[in-house]
Every structure is written in structure tokens, then in C-alpha cells.
């Protein structure tokens, strides 16, 4: 499981790095203002579908069913089920896309009510949204094909295809912009074009794996009905984080112009550890839990859950500490160029700290949710999700005026911790989650090591101030990150959480094999 976890995480990390380059271009060309706000809102709706379907409800419902059919009835029946599901999904999504194109002005009034205050932002938002909306059809179909690949344990092919989103997006910004009214139009067309490329790559990967997927005519067979029943409630249960972010965006449109942009770039940095660890944990844990539970191996399932919790916290908590200490320098170095000023970067850093506070909770939701889905229970997370949505909305209303662009991120972080608390309580009551003493000990020591690392970085920052000039700042930030990582590793070794000699030996063996 760890190998698959690292494989998915590695491809996702590469995708996030390319995404960072794409975001830097967006910031440099559009800054933080009305144009950027309009583009980000246009991208929010299809992107929410991407995350819900690609990393949430659909994967949670489809993979266990597909894996069960594949194991019990063979490849032919599994392929038929996947083709039938693809046909039903495409029929529904194409209908949804056509309706969205026709009623986009009304949709935008719902998701960006603040744009009505200025006609330019609203008109631009409608135009850009109509360009990006077909992406939801392409990426949701791609999610199904990726689910098939994951069910076949072809994790690397499914994860690597998503690089296309950022590669195509970067190319569109750099090379298509001169032929468009502005950069926002080029970026919007890049979104939809990337969906075509991603779906094509995944279908090609399936064909290479000997599992070609030509959609069948839509038909609600009993198995498809079961898939739909499991999937629909899971849209809320597993997608609470994304729906909360959409609520944040709605509230942000009511704040001063540029607030949507400030929150977006902060969230993008927060998504680096969240996307890598959360997606990797959720993607690799669900098939493992499903297999153990189907075989009646409940102890093995609980052990796998414990290992996942340890892995994600081991990597998430130092990321939180680093983001809290270095948020300002990170945002200045990465985005404080061109139209995105240093002042904009510091304001965005405030939102980043608010997001970072909830990072462990956001990732833990991805680890805890598969424990329900693997048991065929997608209803319980729905009830929890609805409560969290209401709570997040109330917090947004309370925070939006006094905290401005920091309010929505802080509301989401607080709501995420409440989500984790509810999920943990319910799993413990069902005896589906039982932390081993070693796991609890390692969690406490990891928290301590992360806190000490943060204190160490603050001391170094007080002695060596943030320099002037981009090159020196890049070197300074790189040194701080390396110092933090080394200090954290030393603390983990000193606390007995990891054995440094064993880790180095494994790395040498791994790289030694690759070099042969």
C-alpha cells in the first residue's frame, strides 16, 4: 500500500508543481482584481465537479463495485459494467452541460452574487463560465476511466494523466493569449482543452491495459441503480471540503474586489500538501479496505487505516508548521511579481495561514471517509456533511465582515475539524476505527516535532531576516525549507518515530535499482 501511496503522491506532486507554474503565470498576467476574480469564479464550478468526482463521491462508489465485479465475475462483466456506467454518466453530464450553457447568467447570480454590483465582472464571468463549463463532462468521464485503472491497480497511469491539465493550461496562457481578448479567455479555453487531452490519455491507457471502454447506450440496470444510490449521497459526504470552498467563493464575491483572487492563490499553496497527501491516501486506501473487508479481515482493515493516519500526519503536520511560519515569504517569492504586487502577496498570506490551520483536518477527512465507503455506507457522511455545510455557512457570515478575505478560509478550517470529530466518533462507535497505542504515541510525538520545527524556523528567521531581491529571497526560502526538513527529520529520529539509517538504506536501494 505504501508503494501505491507514494506512486500516486509522486505523480500528484509533479502535477501540483506544474500547477504552481500555471498559477504564477495567472498571477503575473492578471494580478488580483476583477479580471482574475471573473476567471476564478468561471473555473470554480467545473473544478468543483472535478474534485468531487475525481477524488470523492464517484471514486468512492464506483471503485468498490467495480473491484467486486472484477473479482467475483471476471473481466468481461467488469468491462460491461464500466461501459454501461460511462454511457449513463455521459448522457446525464451532457444534459447538465447544455442546461448550464443556456442558464449560465442565472447560475452566476447564484455562485457569484457580488458580481452583480459591477456589470463588467458579471458579463465577463458569464462568458468565461460558458467556455469552461464543458470541462465537467470531460473530467467526470475521465474520473470513471481513472477509477477503472485504479481498480486494475494501474495507479501510475491514472495519476500521470492529470498532468495534462497544467501542461495544456500553461501552453494556453503563453501561446494562445495573443489571439484572445485577454489572458482570462486563453486560460478558460485551456481548461476545456485540457479535459479533452486528459480523457484521451486515460482511454488510451485503458486500451493499452487490454480494457478498452466504449460507452454503452444508457440503461439503468440494477447494478447502475446501486452505483447511483451510493454515489449521490456521497457527493455531499466526501465533497464537504470542496462545497465549503465554493461557499467561501460565494461569500468572497460579496467582499472587496480581489478577495476571490487572494483566497484562490492562498488555497493553491494549501492544496500542494492537501492534494498530494489527501488524494494519495484516499485513492490507495479505499481499494485496500474494500479487499480486506470483503475477505473478512477486519483487523487488517483497521491496521491499514492506522498506517494511513500515521503516514498523512507524519507529512501533513510539518507542512502546517512551515506554512504558518513562512506564509509571507512563500507568497512573495512565488506570486509577488508582475501585476500581483508584494502587498497582494502579504494579504494572500493571511488567507494561507487560515487555510493551513485546517490542513490536518482536510487530509484526515480523506482518510476517514473510505472507512464508510468501503463498507457500502455513503449515507452517514451525508448527514455529517449537511451539518458541516450549515456550520461553515454560519461561520462565513460571522467572519466575513470583521476578517474580510481571511474569514472564509478560517471558517472552512474550523468546519473541517468538526467534520473529523464527527466521523471519528461514528467510526469508533461502530468499532471501525481503533487507534493502536503505537499510533497514538506517534501522533503525539509528531505534533511535538512539528512544533519544535516551527519554533526553530522562527528563531532562524529572527536572526536572518528576509532579504531584498528575488534571487536572494529564493535562496533564503530554499535554505529555510531545507533547514526545517532536516531539523524535523532529526527530531523524528530522536523521538524514535523513524530510523534514519533504515530510511537512507531504502533510498539508496531504490535509487540504486533505478540507476542500473
Automatic annotation (TrEMBL):
Q: What are the UniProt keywords, alphabetically?
A: Cell inner membrane, Cell membrane, Cell shape, Cell wall biogenesis/degradation, Membrane, Peptidoglycan synthesis, Transmembrane, Transmembrane helix, Transport
CDD domains for this protein: MATE_MurJ_like (cd13123)
Membrane topology annotation? Multi-pass membrane protein
Q: Its Gene Ontology molecular function terms?
A: lipid-linked peptidoglycan transporter activity
Is Cell wall biogenesis/degradation there in the keyword field?
A: yes
Which InterPro entries would you find in this protein's record? Lipid_II_flippase_MurJ/MviN, MurJ
Write out the GO cellular component annotations: plasma membrane
A Gene Ontology biological process annotation?
peptidoglycan biosynthetic process
Which pathway is this protein engaged in? Cell wall biogenesis; peptidoglycan biosynthesis
Which coarse location class describes where this protein primarily resides?
membrane
List residues traversing the bilayer. Answer: 89-112, 132-152, 159-177, 183-204, 245-266, 272-290, 311-335, 355-374, 381-400, 406-427, 447-468, 474-505
Q: Which subcellular locations apply to this protein?
A: Cell inner membrane; Cell membrane
Tell me, what does this protein do in biology?
Answer: Involved in peptidoglycan biosynthesis. Transports lipid-linked peptidoglycan precursors from the inner to the outer leaflet of the cytoplasmic membrane.
Which family is this sequence assigned to? Answer: Belongs to the MurJ/MviN family.
Q: What is this protein called?
A: Probable lipid II flippase MurJ
Amino acid at each position: 500500500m505504501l508503494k501505491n501511496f507514494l506512486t500516486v503522491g509522486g505523480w500528484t506532486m509533479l502535477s501540483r508543481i506544474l500547477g504552481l507554474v500555471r498559477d504564477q503565470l495567472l498571477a503575473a498576467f492578471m494580478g488580483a482584481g476583477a479580471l482574475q476574480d471573473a476567471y476564478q469564479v468561471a473555473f470554480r464550478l467545473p473544478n468543483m465537479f472535478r474534485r468531487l468526482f475525481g477524488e470523492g463521491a464517484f471514486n468512492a462508489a464506483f471503485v468498490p463495485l467495480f473491484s467486486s465485479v472484477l473479482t467475483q465475475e471476471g473481466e468481461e462483466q467488469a468491462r460491461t459494467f464500466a461501459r454501461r456506467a460511462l454511457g449513463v454518466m455521459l448522457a446525464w453530464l451532457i444534459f447538465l452541460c447544455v442546461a448550464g450553457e443556456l442558464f449560465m447568467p442565472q447560475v452566476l447570480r447564484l455562485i457569484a452574487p457580488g458580481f452583480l454590483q459591477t456589470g463588467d465582472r458579471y458579463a465577463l464571468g458569464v462568458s468565461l463560465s460558458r467556455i469552461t463549463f464543458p470541462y465537467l463532462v470531460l473530467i467526470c468521464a475521465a474520473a470513471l476511466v481513472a477509477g477503472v485503472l485504479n481498480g486494475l491497480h494501474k495507479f501510475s497511469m491514472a495519476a500521470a494523466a492529470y498532468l495534462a491539465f497544467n501542461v495544456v493550461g500553461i501552453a494556453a496562457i503563453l501561446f494562445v493569449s495573443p489571439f484572445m481578448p485577454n489572458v482570462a479567455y486563453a486560460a478558460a479555453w485551456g481548461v476545456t482543452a485540457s479535459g479533452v487531452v486528459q480523457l484521451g490519455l486515460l482511454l488510451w491507457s485503458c486500451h493499452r491495459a487490454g480494457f478498452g471502454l466504449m460507452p454503452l447506450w444508457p440503461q439503468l440496470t440494477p447494478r447502475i441503480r446501486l452505483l447511483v444510490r451510493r454515489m449521490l449521497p456521497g457527493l455531499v459526504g466526501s465533497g464537504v471540503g470542496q462545497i465549503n470552498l465554493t461557499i467561501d467563493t460565494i461569500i468572497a464575491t460579496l467582499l472587496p474586489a480581489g478577495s476571490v483572487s487572494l483566497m484562490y492563490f492562498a488555497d493553491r499553496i494549501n492544496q500542494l500538501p492537501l492534494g498530494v497527501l489527501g488524494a494519495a491516501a484516499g485513492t490507495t486506501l479505499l481499494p485496500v479496505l474494500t479487499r480486506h473487508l470483503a475477505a473478512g479481515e477486519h483487523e487488517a482493515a483497521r491496521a491499514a487505516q492506522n498506517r494511513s493516519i500515521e503516514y498523512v500526519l507524519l507529512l501533513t503536520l510539518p507542512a502546517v508548521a512551515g506554512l504558518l511560519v513562512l506564509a509571507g515569504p512563500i507568497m512573495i517569492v512565488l506570486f509577488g511579481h508582475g501585476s500581483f504586487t508584494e502587498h497582494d502577496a502579504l494579504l494572500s498570506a493571511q488567507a494561507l495561514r487560515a487555510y493551513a490551520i485546517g490542513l490536518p483536518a482536510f487530509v484526515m477527512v480523506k482518510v476517514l471517509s473510505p472507512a464508510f465507503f468501503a463498507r457500502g455506507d455513503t449515507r452517514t457522511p451525508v448527514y455529517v456533511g449537511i451539518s458541516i455545510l450549515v456550520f461553515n455557512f454560519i461561520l462565513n457570515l460571522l467572519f466575513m465582515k470583521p476578517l474580510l478575505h481571511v474569514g472564509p478560509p478560517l471558517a472552512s478550517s474550523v468546519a473541517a475539524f468538526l467534520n473529523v470529530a464527527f466521523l471519528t466518533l461514528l467510526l469508533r462507535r461502530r468499532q471501525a476505527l481503533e487507534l493502536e497505542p503505537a499510533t497514538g504515541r506517534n501522533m503525539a510525538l509528531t505534533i511535538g516535532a512539528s512544533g519544535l520545527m516551527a519554533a526553530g524556523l522562527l528563531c532562524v528567521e529572527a536572526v536572518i531576516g528576509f532579504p531584498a531581491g528575488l534571487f536572494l529571497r529564493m535562496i533564503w526560502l530554499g535554505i529555510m525549507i531545507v533547514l526545517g526538513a532536516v531539523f524535523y527529520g532529526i527530531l523524528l529520529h530522536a523521538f524514535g518515530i523513524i530510523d534514519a539509517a533504515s530510511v537512507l538504506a531504502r533510498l539508496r536501494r531504490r535509487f540504486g535499482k533505478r540507476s542500473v
